[in-house]
Design a protein that fits this description.
257 residues, alpha/beta, 7-stranded parallel sheet, 5-stranded mixed sheet, 9 helices, 30% helix, elongated
């Protein structure tokens, strides 16, 4: 299926398999290895659709004869491993039987003028991935992750992002002081202060700040905010999940452009 040689791995102790296990199961291993593990056809298709070229394509033995030719041809190197070994490296309850290893993009510099979402210590991987999906859906090009935020390229965030990563500018490990470079207005959300979202004229482009699941947006960002909004909750709940709040806010910006 590929003109390049295919490597068959049989031993669990193979050094490459050890590296793949770390990539798939350690949330920050990508920073040390400079590579990212994408498991499953959805993420792999999304990467290919955005023009990413995998360094390696990994297939289980049983799936290899069924794999689309274009998946094998897309990769620089093709690896086929025993089903049990693939299950061992997978972090999924039901292993996907194929995956790509892609090179981690070079560290992106913060674009001061880009429509952005700032993640202020958002720690849940599912929330982070969901916010990335909403950002991509509603036309926000840049994600700025402050220190304390879940690792953007971790396997759990990648799965929750459902391919959004490949169309976004991702800047992580940012100190709050770096936000002074932004030339777009900073908009913050709160459950108890600011005008109702539907009553605001929202700036665009802007940078929406989404805060820690329990503590909300920190004082440093609140002090820099141009606009502060709250989402009305007539049902009486105390607060919204940060990913749900982000989707509402980013949609409001999108329709108001």
């Amino acid at each position: 299926m590929s003109s390049d040689p295919i490597t068959h791995l049989q031993s669990r102790d193979n050094p490459l398999l050890k590296e793949l296990r770390r990539l798939s199961q350690d949330s920050t291993a990508y920073r040390k290895q400079g590579r990212v593990w994408l498991e499953g056809d959805h993420l792999c298709r999304a990467a290919l659709a955005r023009g990413w070229k995998p360094a390696m394509a990994i297939f289980s033995e049983s799936f290899w004869p069924l794999a689309p030719v274009e998946w094998a041809r897309a990769a620089t190197k093709v690896i086929v491993i025993k089903d049990a070994l693939f299950a061992d490296l997978s972090s999924l309850e039901s292993p996907a039987q194929m995956g790509f290893v892609v090179d981690l993009p070079s560290t992106a510099a913060l674009d001061p003028a880009a429509a952005s979402v700032i993640l202020d210590r958002v720690q849940d991987a599912g929330n982070v991935g969901s916010i990335l999906r909403s950002a991509g859906a509603f036309g926000f090009q840049q994600i700025i992750a402050l220190k304390g935020t879940a690792a953007l390229w971790s396997p759990k965030v990648l799965r929750a992002g459902m391919g959004a990563h490949f169309g976004l500018r991702l800047v992580e490990g940012v100190e709050p002081e770096a936000l002074e470079a932004l030339t777009v207005p900073l908009v913050v959300t709160s459950s108890h202060q600011g005008a109702l979202l539907q009553d605001q004229t929202l700036p665009y482009p802007c940078a929406w700040a989404m805060g820690h699941e329990g503590q909300g947006v920190g004082p440093a960002l609140l002090a820099r905010a141009t606009v502060s909004v709250r989402i009305g909750q007539p049902g009486g709940e105390e607060s919204l999940n940060v990913a749900a709040a982000a989707a509402i806010c980013l949609h409001a910006s999108s329709v108001g452009r």
